[in-house]
Amino acid sequence: MASGRALGDPGDDRFAADGAGNAAPAAPEVDPVERARGLAWRSLNKRDRTVNEVGGMLLGKRIEPAVADQVVTELIELGYLDDARYAQRFAEDRRELDDWGAERIERRLLAAGVDPDVVAAALAQQAVEDELAAAVALLRRRFPTPPTNDRERNRALGVLVRKGYESDLAHEAVRALERAS
Questions:
Q1: pTM recorded for the entire structure
Q2: CATH classification of 128-180 is 1.10.3210, yes or no?
Q3: What are the CA-CA distances from residue 2 to residues 5, 12, 21, 164 (Å)?
């Protein structure tokens, strides 16, 4: 070593003593903005997120609000955070993969902190006729024989309402299923 000191000597500032007096490497100083960027990138590597989710995650990791705002703004400007894109993809995925209706999608997007106008625009991508067709298709899969009594109709309605279809649309879908048989 150039200074002539042995590793772990009191004057060696590359190492700090742990609680037992043993030499341990000192933690390098990390720029708070770089730390916030790293956390945000790791979060976005897992899945697409909303602006609110990334900002909340950074604050939850004890990042200063000004630094969190700076990093979120950078990600928005670079196009990596876009609530409109997120809402559109989320709505498409939930409709296709989980058979969700507009009400359930709306609740989840609003809970994720997406602006109500952005949510409305994402939901407007699907016509009412398409949502009705999706509801009828869901009923056909769940109920191979159409409902024949009030109990079966209520079960079919319950399935649709729990999936997030509007009540009027759910009633129309049950009637359409009954007419088709």
A1: 0.74
A2: no
A3: 8, 12, 24, 70
